[in-house]
């Protein structure tokens, strides 16, 4: 079974909720992804999203966009990120964690769809999210991803009409990525809290057309946000990106951040995600 499917199956059996952290590949240091994946898995994350750095990110706010631009400056091409995932799999802590690559479809097109999927399989990636891939243009790439045994969640926005949301949900595999708000990623703003009735309604309407897990992201940054999403909103998981990326960048700037084992960086990530996981478990 695909590791992402296995992770959500286990959560369903245990009637548990999850936190899915997002990190930028090869960030904040070029080799850090290989250490962060097992560390985050050990902190309780069953699935981890790894962003493939892109010069013009589609929906990412300033924190993630800046981290991606820095990573590109260090040479973080897709192959380098996939190699970091492969390196992480050598740590027993990362053996079973699901890894989904968040990647612009234009990057996959440039590399070639077949080569992109083959690299993912070779390096231990379990699925893809292509945030800029319209449903109407997704058949070819989705078929290649599924034929390789990977999953392909797709995004559903708050403004997506119900009929179209149902079509997207039926095309998803692994899980559904439900946006908690419109706009771009990031902390603050018009985050999910305060619109939980709307979020809960959207979760219920999706459950009427699919039994896939629903993971909710955009604007989720605190334990209270996580509890609101999985308790009041009824989602199966909360996705946290910008808040984690910001803490990693801050940790990188600390005077002792450059030590050989990168322990301050790893500890910052673990402590933050553990707090969110506790919030999900008590939601």
Question: Which labels suit this protein?
Answer:
283 residues; alpha/beta; TIM Barrel; eight-stranded parallel β-sheet; 12 helices; 8 strands; 47% helix
How is the biggest beta sheet arranged? 8 strands, parallel
Which fold name corresponds to the CATH topology?
A: TIM Barrel
Which regions are unreliable across 5 or more consecutive residues at pLDDT < 50? 183-187, 189-194
Question: In the CATH hierarchy, what is the architecture at level 2?
Answer: Alpha-Beta Barrel
Our count of domains comes out at 1
Give a structural overview:
By secondary structure, this protein is α/β, with parallel strands linked by helices. Helix 4 runs parallel beside helix 6 (113-123). It has helices at residues 3-14, 33-42, 62-73, 78-88, 105-111, 113-123, 139-147, 162-171, 196-207, 223-232, 242-252, 263-281, and strands spanning 18-24, 47-51, 98-102, 127-129, 155-156, 176-179, 214-217, 237-240.
Provide a compact summary of the structure.
With 283 residues, the chain is α/β, with parallel strands linked by helices. It has helices at residues 3-14, 33-42, 62-73, 78-88, 105-111, 113-123, 139-147, 162-171, 196-207, 223-232, 242-252, 263-281; strands at 18-24, 47-51, 98-102, 127-129, 155-156, 176-179, 214-217, 237-240.
């Amino acid at each position: 079974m695909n590791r992402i499917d296995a992770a959500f199956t286990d959560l369903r059996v245990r009637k548990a909720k999850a936190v899915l952290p997002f990190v930028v590949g090869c960030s904040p240091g070029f080799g850090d992804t290989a250490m962060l994946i097992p560390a985050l898995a050990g902190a309780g994350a069953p699935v981890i999203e790894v962003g493939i750095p892109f010069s013009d990110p589609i929906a990412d706010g300033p924190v993630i966009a800046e981290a991606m631009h820095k990573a590109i400056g260090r040479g973080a091409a897709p192959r380098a990120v996939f190699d970091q995932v492969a390196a992480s799999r050598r740590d027993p802590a990362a053996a079973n964690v699901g890894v989904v690559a968040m990647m612009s479809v234009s990057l996959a097109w440039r590399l070639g769809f077949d080569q992109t999927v083959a690299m993912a399989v070779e390096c231990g990636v379990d699925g893809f999210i292509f945030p800029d891939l319209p449903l109407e243009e997704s058949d070819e790439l989705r078929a290649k991803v599924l034929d390789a045994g990977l999953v392909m969640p797709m995004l559903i926005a708050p403004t997506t009409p119900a009929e179209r949301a149902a079509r997207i949900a039926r095309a998803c595999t692994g899980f559904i990525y439900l946006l908690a708000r419109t706009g771009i990623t990031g902390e603050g703003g018009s985050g999910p809290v305060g619109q939980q009735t709307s979020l809960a309604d959207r979760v219920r309407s999706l459950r009427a057309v699919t039994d896939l897990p629903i993971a909710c992201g955009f604007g989720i940054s605190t334990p209270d946000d996580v509890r609101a999403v999985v308790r009041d909103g009824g989602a199966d998981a909360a996705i946290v990106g910008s808040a984690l990326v910001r803490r990693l960048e801050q940790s990188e700037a600390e005077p002792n951040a450059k030590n050989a084992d990168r322990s301050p960086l790893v500890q910052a990530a673990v402590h933050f995600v553990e707090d969110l996981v506790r919030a999900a478990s008590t939601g």
